[in-house]
Structure formats: structure tokens, C-alpha cells
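Researcher: Quick test of sequence recovery. C-alpha cells follow.
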């Protein structure tokens, strides 16, 4: 159920992480400074990723609630049509 925005975001974050890592590795500084920078940037990227993941989780929950409501409404309409003998209502909305 992955959508284009999520795929693009993950590709961007992966590219940013790889680019930052390469930039740090070719930077003219000591190994200790480079390791500290990598750790700091990795921590920052992890925090940003956690924030994005939390947003995606909330969106999935919101859409899940919409899906449950739509399924329930469809079941109710089917039950009403079956018991009344009338054809079930149709929708052209999408």
C-alpha cells in the first residue's frame, strides 16, 4: 500500500544519507572529528525519520478509519437492500 510520495520520501532520505556520508568521508579532518560528525548527523537523520514515520502512521490510521466507515456503510446498504427487496444503491463517486 505504498504510495508515490512515501517512495519518493524514502528515496530522498536514503540519497541524503549516502551523500552526507560520502561528503564526511572525503572531508579534510581527523578520523575522530569525522566519526563524531557522522554520529551527530545519523542521530539527526534518525530523529527526522522518526518524525516522518510518525506522520505516515497517523495518515494510515486516518485512512483506515475512513475505510472502516466505508465498509460499514456498504454492509448497511446491502442489508437494507436485501431485506427491502429493492436493488442496492450504486455510486459513481470515486
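Model:
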Amino acid at each position: 500500500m505504498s504510495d508515490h510520495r512515501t517512495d519518493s520520501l524514502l528515496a530522498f532520505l536514503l540519497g541524503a544519507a549516502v551523500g552526507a556520508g560520502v561528503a564526511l568521508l572525503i572531508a579534510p579532518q581527523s578520523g575522530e572529528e569525522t566519526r563524531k560528525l557522522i554520529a551527530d548527523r545519523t542521530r539527526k537523520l534518525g530523529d527526522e525519520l522518526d518524525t516522518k514515520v510518525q506522520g505516515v502512521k497517523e495518515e494510515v490510521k486516518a485512512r483506515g478509519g475512513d475505510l472502516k466507515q466505508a465498509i460499514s456503510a456498504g454492509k448497511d446498504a446491502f442489508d437494507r437492500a436485501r431485506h427491502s427487496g429493492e436493488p442496492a444503491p450504486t455510486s459513481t463517486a470515486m
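The first helix runs from residue 4 to 25.
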